[in-house]
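Sanity check

After download, print the first record. It should look like this:
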Amino acid sequence: MNLKRIFGALLTLLGIGGLIYDAVLFVNTSGSTRDIKALVIYSILGIIFFAAGISLIRATKDES
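Expected structure tokens:
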């Protein structure tokens, strides 16, 4: 396993964690402006990290 795949897996896990945290915030939100900003920020960061991690894993070739 090379360094790019490990970094891709780490980014993917961070993205999943951000999306799960966003879901928890969404369930517990009261609808104020501060809550909406946090929801948008965590969802965008989660999607970016998840997509970057998955694409890094898919683009890295296996060298044996």
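If your output differs, re-run the checksum step. Summary of this record's structure: The chain has a mean pLDDT of 89.
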